[in-house]
Amino acid sequence: MKFDTPATTNPIDQLKVIGKPTDRIDGPAKTTGTARYAYERHAEVPDALYGWVVGAGIAKGRIASMDLNAARAAPGVRAIVTARNAGTLAKGDFNTARLLGGPEIDHYHQAVALVVADTFEQARAAAQLVRIDYTRAPGRFDLAAEMSAAQLPEPTPFAGPPETKTGDFSGAFAAAPVQLDATYTTPDESHAMMEPHASIAQWHGDKLTIWTSNQMIAWGVGDVAKTLGIPKANVRLVSPFVGGGFGGKLLVRADALLAALGAREAKRPVKVALQRPLMMNNTTHRPATIQRIRIGATRDGKITAIAHEGWSGDLPGGQAETAVNQTRLLYAGANRLTTTRLAVLDLPEGNAMRAPGEAPGMMALEIAMDEMAHKLGLDPVEFRVRNDTQVDPEKPERPYSQRRLIECLRTGAERFGWSRRIATPAQQRDGRWLVGMGMAAAFRNNLLTKSAARVRLDSRGIVTVETDMTDIGTGTYTIIAQTAAETMGVPLEKVQVRLGDSAYPVSAGSGGQWGANNSTAGVYAACMKLREAIAQKLGMAAADAQFSNGMVHAGGRPVPLAEAAGASGLVAEDGIEYGDLDKKYQQSTFGAHFVEVGVDAVTGEIRVRRMLAVCAAGRILNPKSARSQVIGAMTMGVGGALMEELALDKRHGFFVNHDLAGYEVPVHADIPHQDVIFLDETDPISSPMKAKGVGELGMCGVAAAVANAVYNATGVRVRDYPITLDKLLEGLPPVA
After folding, report:
1. Alpha-carbon torsion angle 253, 254, 260, 261, nearest 10
2. Do the beta carbons of residue 615 and residue 442 sit within 8 Å?
3. What is the pLDDT of residues 66-79, one digit of tens each?
4. DSSP one-letter code for 169
5. Which residues in 191-223 are b (16+ Cβ under 10 Å) and which e?
6. Closest Cα to residue 259, out of 123, 68, 128, 350?
7. Beta strand pairing status for 451-457 and 570-578?
8. What is the C-alpha R_g of the chain?
């Protein structure tokens, strides 16, 4: 199905199933432990061996020698894989560093060996016996020290150009009566998902099956095939359940490749789960940023000049964190400059983490907007309203498909009680606590990518959907089932959903906040094709056929779908392909975050007290799961504001706190009641579903709202995340 004109009335608009707060159809399996994750496929591979990954003990250099004798002689050991016996390995399209290192080492904890044994304990014990001597080389580990050498990266489809200029920023900024010039930093962060990167690999002749935890099945198939030098047709990836990803499982990692290599060497299936330290240093992370923001405005609060420059680092050939991109779109202003620069660092690979670009970018931009509002003596909500735009500021001829940022801001302010906020910092107390409110805008682009599905109708009237789309805890099973039920006119219990298998049609996959809108649009396309096949079989005009209550009606003649399917059933396959609507219109999602905090007047301890998110993100397909996505994103935003930081050893180039004890994330005690409001919105320019994404929008801006609330409570402006006690103590107001 080609989507190149705005959607009109279609079967989804019935809203009999779509738009309802539906319980997750996969919920019972997950809560009873019967949902099998990658490491748990015991029925399919009952004879699997266990692999333990040995990570490099240096960040830069080469292996001088590797002694495997003691490890090979250890009890239960069946094989050891290193670069010496792995054969020729290419580098996948989506990997920056080689997944198996040696003799050259690219980063700390790069996989250099896999020990395969009968039991997990035997593999772990034998791996400790591998003796490796290294020759260290000097490395570049400090982003600030490498800023001067940073370069403009190559443009990419996701990142766009590294630099944009509109008007005369320098002249307009110099002439602006009110100016802000500030620098902000965000740290390296880890995905820290509960389920580790895990895979089981099995060979049948030259055919490879990998049960893995992966968000993007088709990408993974391509990278495995390219790395091993085998045809894509010989690779099958299976990932029906993913225990959290946040972008860390977009790409095939060392667990999948080494499981495949270990299984080939041992001639038995092999299962590999990365131990937690390797999840922090071996896989990807959100890279640190340094961001300089300059804003010039008139005294009545109209922005005349805005510039956002960002620096981040990655391994050679890596990509920059596009922290400046939302500044190209979010606020008006005739004179504009954005620049992204990339430094070469010898650290573990930087890559996508929930809302890449906008998440760290909004952490800086929305503090800068708060600072500028304070300079102007304007309410922060009003300052943003005055600088709203209904067109792309860099391309004024390009309007937004929908932009209801002002409504989000106004609605949030009213519901949160923003009018009770005292604008002057450090004026409100509650016993020992300094109390403050903060807010920030939310923004995330709506990305479109083609997605396909196969739909089967059987003689029982059951509709089965097959697509390689994944569910990373987001509720994908349910919204796909809702889409099929709505389109085919059957109750939800008559729909079966099969996901995460490369044997199924290629979907959008889970990432970039694009999964829900695109994957359901692909299912809708397949269902519409199935409706045509049913109508044709029954001699009905497809345009006149009505599907409801498990029946198809045309010309007053109702026929049960089960009867229409016949003994052999019917199958249809189709997908959504987009035209140029996303080029004619800027498609984005918007929101507003409001936060109240308490800060201990003596210790500087910060407690989040209340949170509210207002979101405008197209049609909400399932309000229950969408709310869960947003409150999870809000929680992640609190982590980014107050605690999350991979502590970098700048001498040796590794993340020190590489476990869930040292890498702090919010727990229940850190998070208060959270409210979420969805504006009633549809966007017919987005897709036939008239939906967008929401799971990353709910995070963008949260950290800045917390930081702004801390400032309002204390008068201490922190520009370097996370906001920890040491950054507050000296500036706290005197204790009465």
Report:
1. 150
2. yes
3. 999 999 999 999 99
4. H
5. bbbebbbbbbbbbeeeebbbbbbbbbbbbbbbb
6. 123
7. antiparallel
8. 27
Buried/exposed 153-170: b ≥16 CB within 10 Å, e otherwise: beeeeebbebebebbebe
pLDDT tops 80 at residue 558: yes
Q: For residue 735, what pLDDT is reported?
A: 83
Instruction: Note the pLDDT of residue 628.
Output: 97
pLDDT in tens, 287-301: 999 999 999 999 999
3-state SS class at 568: coil
pTM of the model: 0.98
Q: Is the peptide bond before 722 cis (omega within 30 degrees of 0)?
A: yes
Distance CA 195, CA 216 (A): 16
- Residues 513 and 694: their CA atoms lie apart, in Å, by 6
State residue 556's pLDDT score. 80
Q: Is 637 exposed, middle or buried (0-12, 13-18, 19+ CB in 10 A)?
A: buried
| Nearest CA among 586, 632, 641, 639 for reference residue 613 | 632
The three-class DSSP label of residue 517 is helix
At 158 the pLDDT is 86
Residue 388 neighbours by CB under 8 Å, 6+ apart: 331, 332, 403, 405, 406
Residue 350, Cβ neighbours under 10 Å: how many? 25
d(CA 223, CA 208): 13
Of the residues 189, 397, 696, 730, only one is catalytic, namely 696
Q: Is 696 a known active-site residue?
A: yes
Decide if 611 contacts 634 (C-beta within 8 A).
yes
* Residue matched to tokens 């504006």: 679
Give how far the C-alpha of residue 454 lies from the chain's centroid of Cα atoms, to the nearest Å: 26
Alpha helix segments (H runs only) across 288-432: 358-376, 380-386, 405-416
455 in helix, strand or coil?
strand
CA distances in angstroms from 59 to 75, 134, 653, 670, listed in the order given = 31, 10, 6, 35
What φ, ψ does residue 304 adopt, rounded to 5°?
Answer: -110, -20
What's the confidence (pLDDT) of residue 157? 85
**Residue 549 Ramachandran class (φ > 0 left, ψ -120 to 50 alpha, else beta):** left
> What are the pLDDT digits (tens) for 500-552?
999 999 999 999 999 999 999 999 999 999 999 999 999 999 999 999 999 99
